[in-house]
Amino acid sequence: MRIGVTGASGFVGRRLTADLQAAGHEVRRIGRGSDADIRWDPARGEIDAARCAGIEAFVHLAGANVGERWTPEQKRAIRESRVDGTALIARTAAALQPRPRALICASAVGIYGNAGDAVLDELSPTGSDFLSEVGRAWEAAATPAPEAGIRTVHLRFGIILSRRGGALAKMVPAFLLGGGGRLGSGSQWMSWLSMDDAVAMIQFALARADLAGAMNAVAPEPVTNTEFTETLARVLRRPALFPVPDFALNLMFGEMAQATLLASQRVVPRALLAAGYSFRHASLESALRAAVNE
To answer: What is the pLDDT averaged over residues 168-197?
Structure first.
């Protein structure tokens, strides 16, 4: 299959591209860098549509980093990079002849907001904070694709565990130095998945012609932050003696801390399980051991 991938230079995109190529697929990288096969500029609404001809499926992963303090400029970049990029890919896909079979879009469990202990599946209500609003707009921006008859899947990713990027890459050095600990009370729920499963879920969504709509891309066993911290400390054979209180996180990261580090999202992958997806790492310890040994 000929597959167009945005965000191919990110830590998930790099692994996905390598796995797709190893499986015999042709990957066309969509980006702004010199290594891109197809150049685009989402902010300007520009893409080399002629070079998209013949693409049979798109995987859209691009988006600005949410894991830093949110200035007004950063919040605008977070929203626009997701909404504008998704809209551009969806419009481009809808205009191609022949049309692609599928559009697999990244989304995020942040769409559910801070939901406490409630168990969240794909039918649960979305939240009311900034990331929830971004998530709704992000998914809605893909509308031109399904309206054109293109099967569209929104994979709502949890925390992807990899030593090569994302949240875990920032945690491991602190834990190795003996400075790890829970965040806030530690009672907030974390929805996570291994890198192996993140990539396999994308491939699963590409291959299954019966799948469409929102799908929670998380492991079946969400954990509290305390449990996550204790498990990571055990895997790294280090203590977890230095909890970071809420006020310190709020001082360092402001609104971002409340929406990500301290938010509670107990999300389950009901749709993926119903579709028969088999997890590579269903337990947190298994996923963390795989991640730290990458």
So the answer is: 95
Task: Name residue, tokens 């709502």.
Answer: 156
Question: Is this model's pTM higher than 0.85 or not?
Answer: yes
Question: In the numeric block, which tokens belong to residue 163?
Answer: 């030593």
Instruction: State CA 35 to chain mean position distance.
Output: 23
Show the domains of the chain with their CATH numbers.
Answer: 2-292 (3.40.50.720)
- State both tokens at 18: 């390598």
Residue 128: DSSP 8-state:
S
Tell me which residue has tokens 């990713």: 157
User: pLDDT exceeding 70 applies to what percent of the chain?
Assistant: 100
What are the tokens at 55? Answer: 């693409």
| H-state helical runs in 123-257 | 130-140, 144-147, 166-176, 195-207, 225-236, 246-253, 255-256
Do the beta carbons of residue 132 and residue 110 sit within 8 Å? Answer: yes
What is the rounded CA–CA span in Å between residue 283 and residue 223? 10
Is the peptide bond preceding residue 42 cis, with omega within 30 degrees of 0? no
Give the span between the Cα atoms of 1 and 206, in whole angstroms.
Answer: 10
- Residue 281: per-residue pLDDT: 98
Query: Two tokens at 144?
Result: 């031109």
pLDDT tens track for 230-274: 999 999 999 998 999 999 999 989 999 999 999 999 999 999 999
Quickly state the pLDDT bin for 162 (edges 50, 70, 90).
Answer: very high
Note every long-range contact of 62-68, with CB atoms under 8 Å and residues 24 or more positions apart, other chains counting: 62/6, 62/7, 62/10, 62/30, 62/31, 63/7, 63/106, 63/138, 66/110, 66/131, 66/256, 66/260, 67/166, 67/167, 67/170, 67/256, 67/260, 68/253, 68/256
